[in-house]
Amino acid sequence: MKTRSKFAINMSALLRRHRWLIIGLLWLTAYALGVWGSFRQLHAIQHHHSVFEPFYRALQLFVLEENLASEPPIAWQYQLAMFLAPGVAIYTTIITVASLFQDQLLLVRLGRLKKHVVICGLGRQGFQLVKDFIDNGDRVVVIELNESNEVINTCRDLGAIVLTGNATDPAMLKMARAAYARCIIAICGDDGINSEISGQAHNLMRERWKAGNSQLNGSPDEQLDCYVHIVDEKLRRLFGRGQTFEHKDHNFRLRFFNTFENCAREILDKFPPEVDVNAGSQIHILIIGLGQLGGSVLLQAARIGHYAGGRKLRITIIDREADIRSSEIALRFPALPQICDLRFIQKDVERDKIFDDELLKSIESDHPLNKIYICLDDDAEGLSCALTILPDVKKWNVQVIVRMAQNIGISTLLDEIKPLTPDLDRIRQFPVINSACRREIILNETLDKLAKQVHEEYVADQTARGFTPKEKPNLVDWNELPEEIRESNRQQADHISVKLRAVRCLTRPADQSSSGDFYFTDEEDELLAQMEHNRWVADRLLSGWRPGDRDDSNRITPYLVEWDQLPDDVKKNDRNAIQKIPAYLKEIGLEIIRK
């Protein structure tokens, strides 16, 4: 199933909105034609009639009781009314019955629906997900509390089934056949409600399992994945370390996600800071606005910002509450200064000059900028900030990335004026909702496939060396891994693109006619292995690990050291991981080529 054209969707919405007006006009048209045609028909057969007889005979057409057509000649108005009048009557009856029995018809449509997607919440993010899942060919059921939500009919026009009610109500989830769905996405705009939805969904799977569905046990085809949107940072940190979210007995898997973190991943992948930078130079990025998105960009940059030069990533942050933000970050991530060179500058971007003399001198003499990420929460404020700094940016040949809510509104204005002002081409927009609220990003299928391969290769290598899960607890199946370790593998997969850029390589869809497998040179193997170790160290430090004799339960590892201090067997692990990158990418249909 493919999404209909925008024209078809708009026409369907227009017809739905004005349905009864259109039906009324059709009734009037049919009746007028019937009266006109009856008058002409009666006149043609020279039948003496009262002034009211044509009106009566026109009414008879709606109930298939015409008796003038047997006597030619037949007026074209009468012929047209003969078909239009009963057609309008039948259509009106169908629409009326459908409206009266809408709930019953909906239940019939749901029927024995399976392997569908249930989306709870129809805000801007939920609506974007509905469109993207349907575009992919998925069957979608939506649960929305606000029955007057203006996008409900649009979703129905797209082909989604929309139920209005409380998604935390077990009866509503049962109506949506949540226990038989492929996945549930709770994105209602409230962390508490989203969490409660996941609990109710788990209860439904538990009930289904207890009801005697023994075939469920261990069957991946019958597994329900529940994706819960969590905004609160404290809750995210708490849930991020969870190890009990896989309920195998009930075939239920719970996963938390955050659109700001997803955005940060996408921004740094689409607009990497190290492009066109001389080898060995220190990469310097500027983040303006340290709210939810700015903070996520900061952390993601710290995790993957480990480049060929081996120098620390330099990050300058400008925020109106920079002093408070820096204290909060120091408490949450005390190891961050070990990973990056940080500088916090307190400025109100609406009132203060962003690049004062001191900052300009620093940028132009010692620390040239490579990318600017404007992460302000307001679209107008973000664009205004970008336009304000444009004269300085021109001198440095730096790209400015501006956060936008969606690629509509103010975002379209920038696209319209760009051709008139060539300098505006340095400003690139990043629509948060359009980019982060996508099927691929939420389900993480490609990223998880890469991360799973990374883990399986590690398990195979360590097992071949004689290690056991007792000695190394992470030598288990992917589905048994703690979520924190899975996320670490995802970060390693994220870093593949950084590594490829470091050796001037890129990926493309695999070509069956390509000459052969890709291999890195020995020098490249060594360089990329060092980059991988630096990334791993940063990931461990940000997760609260400390150096010392190995004690996984207390987050202590002896390998938080420089590359030269690593034991040879650990270096070999990193080199092996690099040599497997072409095979990892081949599994998802990509191949590596040199620029």
List its traits:
595 residues; alpha/beta; Rossmann fold; 50% helix; 13% strand; elongated
Widest beta sheet: strand line-up: 3-2-1-4-5-7-6
Low-confidence stretches: none
Mean of residue pLDDT values: 85
Overall strand count: 17
| Strand residue percentage | 5-15%
User: If helices are DSSP runs of H or I spanning 4 or more residues, what is the number of helices?
Assistant: 25
User: What is the name of the CATH architecture of the largest domain?
Assistant: 3-Layer(aba) Sandwich
Q: How is the CATH topology of the largest domain named?
A: Rossmann fold
CATH class of the largest domain: Alpha Beta
Structural write-up:
The protein has 595 residues and is of the alpha/beta class. It folds into four domains: 6-100; 104-257, NAD(P)-binding Rossmann-like Domain (Rossmann fold), CATH 3.40.50; 263-436, 3-Layer(aba) Sandwich (Rossmann fold); 444-594, Globin-like (Orthogonal Bundle). Helix content is 50%, strand content 13%. It has a seven-stranded mixed β-sheet, sandwiched between helices.
